[in-house]
Amino acid sequence: MNVAEILHQHAAGDPDQVALADVRRGRIRRTTYADLDRRAGQLAELLRRSGLRPGDTVLVMHRMSSELYIALAAIFRLGLVAMFVDPSAGSAYLERCCRLHPPRALIASSKAQLLRLWMPALRRIPLTFSFGCRVPGAFRAEHAWRLPGDETIAATDSNAPALVSFTSGSTGAPKVVVRTHEFLLAQHRAIEQSLALTPGEVELVTLPIFVLANLASRVTSLIPDVDLRRPDAVDPAPMVHLLSELNANRAAAPPVVFERIADHCERTGAVLPAVCKVFTGGGPVSPKLLQRLQQVVPQAEITVVYGSTEAEPISTVALSDIAPGDFAATDAGHGLLAGRPVDSVRVEILEDRWGRALGPLTSHEFEKLCRPAREPGEIVVHGPHVLDGYLGNGGADLENKIRVEDRVWHRTGDAGYFDERGRLWLLGRCAARVRDDRGELYPFSVEHAALRHDTIRRAAVVGLRGERVLAVELRRRSQVPDLASLLKSLTFAGVDSVRIVRRLPVDRRHNSKVDYAALRTQLEHAS
User: Fold this and answer.
1) DSSP code of residue 513
2) Do 499 and 522 meet the contact criterion of CB atoms below 8 Å apart?
3) Is the dihedral of CA 147, 148, 154, 160 positive or negative?
4) What is residue 393's predicted lDDT score, i.e. its pLDDT?
5) How many Cα atoms sit within 13 Å of 1 on the Cβ side?
6) Is there a cis peptide before residue 313, judged by omega within 30 degrees of 0?
7) In this structure, what are the phi and psi dihedrals at residue 203, rounded to the nearest 5 degrees?
8) 128 CB-near residues (< 8 Å, 6+ apart)
């Protein structure tokens, strides 16, 4: 089944429902399912007349907006493959991705088109389409609005590629991630169930994959007018205004965005009583942030979603299901509660052998590697919305996948354990664990215990010349933290010293995952 058929069915069954509401030049634009279906058909006709055929790859470079999802729907209708590259990763990363999987066409905003001036990989793309201002060498996508719409939807095999993206973990080379139409449908079902998507709801959303799920579930997506390439620097005021203006009852964003919203509401005294469901993930979510958010959205059920590029979602936990004892466990160094796995996946904890290839294994050999409750190890996951492999990258498959007879398990690279109640707890990246003559120390056990101190915004632990060093970033540079009290609270971890840094190095995409290798280099140079 072609996923575009779902949007076409919604346009026929409920044409006037608003599918997307975004902001352009200070004005709220509403796009109904009928509008989305009509525009997608017109753009599909333009792409078809330009010579694109089923199976061709189209690189899409456009901020979240109605144009982005019109383009995506048009691509799916023709049986083309949409390709996305994280815009925050930099030009060198984009060049590598285009070499790994060369696209035949580019659809981009007029601003993104400027990258062609100094990026050979983009100039090599044969066909270019631009939304917005006229750009030399590019077809104006808006010319499609003069064309009759293409009503046909390409019949695609369920295993046909629909969407290509790239992952590199924190520091590795890009890996080509291919999602088929069948995979996208399975992922939608998992998201719809675990996030309780209900037709007619209205959600502020800054996570692109969640917009796709909303479109399929007839949930209206509000897309704020903010630059999400630097989520830790977004202006929260437009998001708070949009939530209030359109009476949204849901919100979904990474934790760093909700930190900005909480900062704004605490500063202005604003509350959002209409919001009844909040979902956050894409990075570690501290207990302190959850408690701050509850003050901002007093009527909301706040849910943390744990997942990865290759498996989204894996588990969820609602704030109402986190007991005071669970917060105390985090403070005592037991990690972050991630909740119960979603129904459609199976999760296991293996003996931590991260960095070494595993398999192929028999079921018996795999079971011998599985750890019992309370024993930490690496988190592996299997299910219909878990990617089995990477395109043309056997080395990455060996490193990140385990074949167990007729099943493929994905190695998340995260460490964790199950408690006696079957709940998953996170301990941080396997590659970031500290190994010394005192044993092993996983990062989250220390870092989230440190975050209970009010002066600390971020924390990260590394091994440095035989010492366990905790680096902390302060909420305000003028603050003077009580380092003696902090060290005393971390006695269980054997932390030797605390270093105050101006800014911890974090990933560009979510601005929440620490780059431990960069931090170690930073601390060594500062010594």
Assistant:
1) S
2) no
3) positive
4) 57
5) 12
6) yes
7) -130, 130
8) 105, 106, 108, 113, 116, 135, 137, 138, 139
- Residue 80 phi, psi (nearest 5): -80, 175
pLDDT at 87: 67
Contact between 116 and 108 (Cβ < 8 Å) = no
Amino acid identity, position 512: S
Q: How many helices (H) and strands (E) does the chain have?
A: 17, 26
Q: What number of CA atoms fall less than 13 Å from residue 386's CA on the CB side?
A: 23
**SS3 helix, strand, coil % of the chain, rounded to 5?**
35, 30, 35
DSSP state of 143: G
Look up residue 146 and give its two tokens: 């003069």
Q: What is the mean pLDDT of each run of 10 residues along the chain (527 residues)?
A: 92 97 90 97 97 96 94 97 84 88 95 87 94 90 93 90 79 80 95 95 93 96 86 89 92 94 95 96 93 96 95 96 96 97 97 92 97 97 93 68 95 97 97 94 96 92 95 86 90 94 84 89 87
Lookup: tokens for 414: 């995260």
Report how far residue 281's alpha carbon sits from residue 286's, in angstroms, rounded to the nearest whole number: 11
- The per-residue DSSP string of 407-471 comes to EEEEEEEEEEEE-TTS-EEEEEEGGG-EEETTEEE-HHHHHHHHTTSTTEEEEEEEEETTEEEEE
| Measured distance CA(227)–CA(282) in Å, rounded | 17
SS3 392: coil
